[in-house]
Amino acid sequence: MSTPFARLPRWADYGLIPLINLLVAFFVAGIVVLLVGENPLKAAVVLVDGAFGSGQNLAYTLYYATTFIFTGLAVAVAFHAGLFNIGGEGQAYIAGIGVALVCLTFDGILPWWLTFPLAIVGSALVGAAWAFIPAYLQARRGSHIVITTIMFNYIASSAMVYLLVNVFKPAGSMAPQTRDFLEGAQLPKLGWLMEVFGLSVRSAPLNISFLLALFMAWVVWVLIWRTKLGYEMRTFGFSSKAARYAGIGEARITIVAMLISGGLAGMMALNPIMGDQHRMQLEFVAGAGFVGIAVALMGRSHPVGIIAAAVLFGALYQGGAELAFEMPNVSRDMIIIMMGLVILFAGALEHMFRPTVQTIFASLSPRSMGVPAAKGEGA
């Protein structure tokens, strides 16, 4: 007799399944490392040590994770409304304009703690404005959000090249970037926080935008699960027909969800521009918008899961750099393969092991999955 379909317990759905997919991804990655002539176990040790083995390494890991938290939250908000926002890369990139304009205007006038809130608003507004156009095209003209957001990534890239070369570049400079920001637009580092735990950070770029990312994760949790708007977004994402029957406006939810998504993606620009580079330059996003898709998928679009997944990808970025240095046969391209495998098993093959796990749970503990126990079993 076949096992009836039932939902897994939440801890298994949100924890066990992603863990199994992650372990399988790393197992396959280990085979790839073995094929290039290196020891997979040694590579794993180097990777983990490179990501978490010192205060400096941990700070770099959290710096990268900060970026991925913002872009992961952006994708997750759109997911909950049934929208697939692939435009986080372009929204974060173009939002650099909002950050740069604030910094270039006020860096010599205001202290950082006044410039920072203005830059947050600037980044969110520009990111949301860039997301508004694809949202409007889907809500009012029926254009597919996936196609338009992909197109807007390329438009943002071309627009930023033009602006950095012809508008923002200082006179006499050859580099396509803005001038360096003064101290009033430089975010303080979080080295003091690491030192509280006895960790030495030295020059790592971890800055207070990490705390902003954690705060925004809490804001998203409140929005999605504790507000009427969040309920309407989840209802629309689950069934657009049911949402329309309940009087929820399809166009309104589409536009509002994408505005919030674009604003969150835009905040990502704060981390590299104000926290590390102290200027706006080409390609500062560096693919973080696309990594955010994997982070949202692996984190089940839940803020807690997104934070954990962001730290994982941050560890792959930082630990991968150390691994490529320690093991020449394991190049940076190999690290990209590892991340691709994580994305593959966490996204495209996410349901590969679910039926087996459901069968095991239904056999061992039917009541925990809402399956009625067979006659003769416990009362």
Describe it.
By secondary structure, the chain is mainly α. The chain has a domain at 63-315: ABC transporter involved in vitamin B12 uptake, BtuC (Orthogonal Bundle). The chain has helices at 10-35, 40-52, 55-80, 88-106, 112-141, 145-166, 191-196, 209-226, 228-238, 240-245, 250-267, 270-277, 288-298, 303-326, 332-348, 354-364. The two termini are 22 Å apart.
Q: Which tags fit this structure?
A:
379 residues, mainly alpha, ABC transporter involved in vitamin B12 uptake, BtuC
TL;DR of this structure?
With 379 residues, this protein is mostly helical. It has helices at 10-35, 40-52, 55-80, 88-106, 112-141, 145-166, 191-196, 209-226, 228-238, 240-245, 250-267, 270-277, 288-298, 303-326, 332-348, 354-364. The chain is built from 16 helices and no strands.
Find the structural class using helix and strand composition: mainly alpha
Q: For the report, how would you describe the main beta sheet? A: none
The overall pLDDT, averaged over residues, is 89
Count of DSSP H/I helices: 16
- Which blocks of ≥5 consecutive residues have pLDDT under 50? 1-5
Estimate the strand proportion: under 5%
Which fold name is given in CATH as the topology of the domain at 63-315? ABC transporter involved in vitamin B12 uptake, BtuC
Secondary-structure element series: HHHHHHHHHHHHHHHH
CATH architecture of the domain at 63-315: Orthogonal Bundle
Overall 3D shape? globular
Q: What is the rounded distance between the termini?
A: 22 Å
Helix residue percentage: over 70%
Radius of gyration: 22 Å
Name the CATH class of the domain at 63-315: Mainly Alpha
Number of strands: 0
